[in-house]
Design brief:
Blueprint (H helix, E strand, L loop, with lengths): L1 E8 L9 E2 L10 H15 L6 E6 L3 H14 L3 E3 L14 E2 H4 L3 H8 L12 H18 L4 E6 L1 H12 L15 E8 L2 E10 L3
Parallel strand pairs: 1-6, 3-4, 3-6
Antiparallel strand pairs: 1-7, 2-5, 7-8
Helix pairs in contact: 1-2, 5-6
């Protein structure tokens, strides 16, 4: 009995690559992101619709806006899940990457995610534990079905690293682009990553 997971990173917003948005409210998709979200919806329309049992999204606006066209196109309800929300970056949330570049704690975070924590925030290992827990709950509910999860880059990396049997500090060895899809199959026998960072042309 297996469950197929489509791990979707939210589409582009205007602060991608310049600001560590984290969980701050009000970060919404730009025009490119809205186009990407529609393209994702068309991509999933080509899946076997009867196999897609559930669409879950992080509660943050940019993820919800990405997930809504997919849910509408497939005619499936959309559920929000705190388990797949962005990492809590605490005191770094909303800061520009230029400002963070002067913080030695930021350099420690990026050199050793396994031993570092954002100020008043969450470790990447803690984020990994909650996303894997959320996926296991869904796997128990939707055997032999597919689940679409719309989440965030580092959260998706954490899930993939777990299923690849790789340490959390290997997070920088692969890319998870905005509006990308990574696909894996999970069963009692283990798991297998089928595709990573599939980018749909907008």
């Amino acid at each position: 009995m297996t469950t197929t997971f489509f791990l979707v990173r939210h589409a582009a917003h205007d602060r991608v690559g310049t600001v560590l948005c984290g969980r701050i409210p009000g970060v919404t998709l730009g025009d490119l992101g809205k186009t990407q979200a529609r393209s994702l919806a068309e991509r999933f329309a080509n899946e076997k619709n009867e196999k897609v049992a559930c669409i879950c999204t992080s509660p943050l606006e940019r993820a919800v806006e990405t997930a809504e066209p997919i849910a509408a196109r497939l005619g499936r309800p959309l559920k929000q899940s705190e388990g797949i929300a962005e990492i809590d970056f605490g005191g770094w949330s909303g800061k520009s990457f230029d400002d963070l570049s002067d913080d030695p704690r930021w350099h420690a975070w990026n050199s050793s995610r396994s031993t570092s924590r954002p100020p008043e925030g969450e470790t990447m290992l803690e984020a990994q534990a909650r996303v894997i827990h959320a996926m296991e709950q869904l796997r128990n509910l939707y055997a032999e079905r597919s689940v679409i999860l719309v989440s965030h880059g580092d959260v998706i990396k954490a899930a993939l690293l777990y299923h690849l049997g790789m340490p959390i500090d290997a997070y920088s060895r692969f890319e998870i682009s905005p509006a990308s899809i990574s696909t894996l199959v999970v069963g009692d026998w283990g798991s297998k990553v089928l595709r990573m960072n599939e980018v749909i042309a907008a």
